[in-house]
Amino acid sequence: MKVLETYEIESEGVPAEVAIVEEPHEYVRIYELRHTRLREATTVAINYLKEKIIEGVNIKVSEILDPREGERVKQRLVAKAHEIVRAELSGLTDDEERIIVGRLSQEMLGLGELELILADENLEELVVNSSREPVWVYHKRHGWLKSNIYVPTEEQIHNYSSIIGRRVGRQITNLSPLLDANLGTGDRVNATLFPISTHGNTITIRKFAKDPWTISNLITNGTITPDAAALIWLAMQYEMSMIVGGGTGSGKTSMLNSLLIFTPPNQRVITIEDTRELVLPEFLNWVPMSTRQPNPEGRGGVEMLDLMVNSLRMRPDRIVLGEIRRQREAEVLFEAVHTGHSVYGTLHADDASQVKQRLINPPISLPEMLVGSLQLILVQYRQRRTGVRRTYEIAELLQTNDGASLNIVYKLDAREDKLRKVGDLLRISNDLMLHTGMTQKEIFEDMKGKQTVLEAMVDKQIMKVNDVGRVIAGYYLDKDSVVGLAEKGQIVKLLLE
Fold it and tell me: Same domain for 25 and 101?
């Protein structure tokens, strides 16, 4: 056995060590979770303590079913657990008490041993394929790994899926065997039940960073360059509509989330998603909306199209669609452009040309003239060999007599791992000159100022969504002052006021 890496993690006060190892005769590396295993006698004691806690806390059914009560129920349960553990298991050290209470909390309100894995910030994905297979994880540095953790029974996997569903007011049953939901941390969950998944019940959890990615993060890790980000900021400021394309796991949603922070704070944003992923600064005029699956009788479902149509009655300035999938959704989204709204969304496509082709061909099949109302396409890319995510292309859609053509402005040089400017702005420059009276020189100077602010935020490590949002909002209030602070290296003063 060869140990490649070890590090510590902790969840609910329960510590553990992770080791990434290579085992002889194994085709993939092993994600080995090493933590204190409970003796059989201790397990029996914990089962007894669970019953005592349930008797002592007196949780109502309405509280269990109400996802908004989750945190208060947890606080009451943990407080009672400490009280009962001290009374029933005298002589424990503070660390031992904390570990036992943590294990009780994980098993009674969480996903048991899986909670430890979910606490690992180095993971992007956690997958339960069935009770017969070990849990698989996707590691940021090592790719897919097989763990040493099993969920013991199919019933337990079903139970975990039900716990996740209850937290967001959804159900997974034999009549409704598919579940899309979010954990309280923002992590996205998909679950299926046998026999829909023929090997057994499954859970797939895509982990998201506790702090959402911001444009500062993306510039720091090389996903996008400051000058390209400044171009997108300019387009966002002047309400130009945009689609973010890319393959699975390319970072489309993270990129869209980071760009929406460029929204002026005096505008209203409506976001529509199947499961909540977008996180905007708390001071923005933002209404997040999510779809709802129908109940087992087929009633009560709310689809993206319903929310799209409803959002037009909410006086939005900007409408954001989590993912464009169907013709009717795309039609309503593009019609919103013609009624004076800016629209943004994501689409599965590998380059700007493919984004356009997907929009004008089945199953979406929009008229090409309608697609021409979109100003920008940004495409994300994931390098399969190294796992890094990069902005692959930024393109303008030019309106022509026949419909729309593409003007590639930025393109990734994969060999040099560099996003390069390969074309001049045409439509954006013309639109700005027509609608704002800006000259080419003023457009260039505006982008240089924005680039200076972005580079200053990166230099001063301003990464959190609310902090980045405050700098952007400050720019809209007093552009010259903020650019001046950025040039002097004093951008952090905006966060101290």
Answer: yes
Residue in 232, 318, 238, 308 with CA at minimum distance from that of residue 274: 308
Q: What's the number of domains the chain is made of? A: 2
Kindly state whether residues 260 and 198 are assigned to the same domain.
Answer: no
Which residues, other chains included, contact 114 with Cβ-Cβ below 8 Å and sequence gap of 6+? 126, 128, 135, 149, 151, 160
Indicate the SS3 state at residue 29.
coil
Beta strands in 351-447 (DSSP E): 376-382, 389-400, 403-413, 418-421
Which pTM does this prediction carry?
0.79
Judge if 360 and 251 occupy the same domain: yes
The residue type found at 362 is: P
DSSP, res 108: H
Contacts of 356 (CB under 8 A, 6+ apart): 371, 377, 397, 404, 406
Closest CA to 135 of 111, 159, 168: 111
CA atoms of 296 and 425, how far apart (whole Å): 52
Residues 94 and 128 both lie in one domain? yes
Domain identity same for 230 and 197: no
Q: Are 144 and 193 members of one domain?
A: yes
Encoded tokens for 398: 């030019």
The counts of H helices and E strands in the chain are: 18, 18
- Say which residues have a Cβ less than 8 Å from residue 404's Cβ, sequence separation at least 6: 356, 368, 369, 371, 372, 374, 397, 398
Examine the domain organization and report whether 258 and 194 are in the same domain.
Answer: no
Rounded (10°) angle between helices 327-338 and 304-311: 10
Tens of pLDDT, residue by residue over 385-428, are 777 899 999 999 998 888 899 999 999 998 899 999 999 999 99
CATH code: domain of residue 152: 3.30.450.380
How far is the C-alpha of 401 from the C-alpha of 102, rounded, in Å? 66
Domain span at residue 136 reads 2-206
Domain end, chosen from 206, 239, 264, is at 206
Per residue in 214-239, pLDDT (tens digit) is 999 999 999 999 999 999 999 999 99
Q: What CA–CA distance (Å, rounded) separates 81 from 75?
A: 10
Give the residue among 139, 136, 96, 144 at the shortest CA–CA distance from 114: 136
Strands in 167-227 per DSSP E? 178-182, 188-192, 202-206
Measured distance CA(199)–CA(461) in Å, rounded:
47
Name the domain boundary from 185, 206, 227: 206
